[in-house]
Design a protein that fits this description.
six-stranded parallel sheet, alpha/beta
């Protein structure tokens, strides 16, 4: 596969931190006991032993609330290794996460110099303030906040991909985002504020590109639940009829599978009859197709988050601006100009 080319430009530049940067001083928020432990850790590093950075995940809902693509872990470990830092992973329950208490304990128990928090849903202002007060240097990954966070530029990527499809002549472009209950007992509208920021941003970027050329968005189905057993049938319905879409932008790998299966069942040839692009960290083949993807910049997010955390460890009281990371477009076998 060709290397992905950039879809968007990040909204904030990352300050570079050299591999020789050291955090020899204990952070001012630490207790005297914690400060002594931090100085001992610094001394151990001078003879070849590493200090730790904590990575906090959701225990019960890691797949949805703390998703960890393989490129993210690669980038995280590689960037930490440049600074003689090791990773300590803590998986906490939702109660422990929202109370904030165990985040501070993770710092103390493992002599963590700082925390990366990959918990991406239900981030109330009270939770953010509590974590900041109790845990010292913290950087949030894959969360779109006002400060101290690194996240993919989903809105910019969705707009750029839609512009790309428009340039290929497509005018009937649908976006597919299939949302199952997954244990949620409330209404769909009640769930909407709890969704990941990308649910809003990808839809917004897609809609903005279409509206800029006088076209209306066509989204399946951000207004109701569609259970997993119904995903393929919902896509079959979308792809049936003379005015069906000629191109589909899939929210994730899950929707990509459903769309391609439905197209195959209907006898549609990809990409001759239907173009498909998906948001995904890697282009995993689906039913024999190597998909074209808006490549989630998971590795770059991880590396930039470590650099931001190093800056925060040096100056814990100084917040860092939010950083958005550009996507790339990885060309596969599922995109073609609109049929003549």
């Amino acid at each position: 596969m060709a290397e992905p080319h950039t879809l968007t430009s990040g909204s904030a530049a990352s300050a570079e931190v050299s591999a020789s940067d050291e955090i020899a001083e204990a952070p001012p928020w630490a207790s005297s006991e914690r400060r002594d432990a931090r100085l001992r850790a610094s001394a151990r590093r001078s003879i070849g032993r590493a200090a730790y950075v904590g990575l906090v995940l959701s225990h019960a809902r890691q797949h949805t609330h703390s998703h960890l693509p393989a490129p993210f872990l690669d980038g995280l470990n590689d960037q930490l290794a440049l600074h003689d830092l090791q990773l300590c992973v803590s998986r906490l329950t939702d109660h422990d996460l929202t109370s904030g208490q165990l985040l501070g304990e993770a710092l103390r128990e493992h002599t963590c110099a700082g925390l990366l928090v990959n918990y991406t849903h239900d981030l109330s202002p009270a939770l953010l303030q509590r974590v900041q007060a109790q845990c010292g240097p913290v950087v949030w990954v894959n969360s779109k906040l006002e400060a101290n966070c690194v996240y993919p530029d989903d809105e910019g990527a969705a707009r750029a991909v839609t512009d790309h499809l428009l340039a290929l002549g497509h005018r009937r472009i649908a976006m597919v985002h299939l949302i199952a209950r997954l244990g949620w007992s409330g209404t769909f509208e009640g769930l909407r504020p709890r969704m990941h920021y990308s649910a809003v941003d990808r839809s917004a970027g897609y809609a903005a590109a279409l509206e800029a050329v006088g076209l209306s968005p066509w989204v399946l189905a951000q207004y109701r639940f569609i259970e997993e057993a119904e995903h393929v049938q919902a896509c079959r319905t979308l792809l049936t009829g003379q005015d069906r879409p000629t191109a589909v932008l899939a929210y994730s790998e899950r929707e990509l599978h459903a769309v391609i299966r439905a197209a195959r069942q209907l006898g549609l040839e990809i990409p001759r009859d239907l173009t498909v692009v998906a948001f995904a960290p890697t282009a995993t083949p689906v039913l024999g197709y190597r998909p074209t993807i808006a490549a989630v910049p998971a590795e770059q997010v991880a590396r930039r988050a470590v650099r931001m955390l190093l800056r925060r460890m040096k100056a814990p009281a100084a917040p860092c601006g939010a950083e958005s990371i550009s996507y790339g477009l990885a060309e596969g076998q599922t995109v073609a100009p609109v049929p003549a």
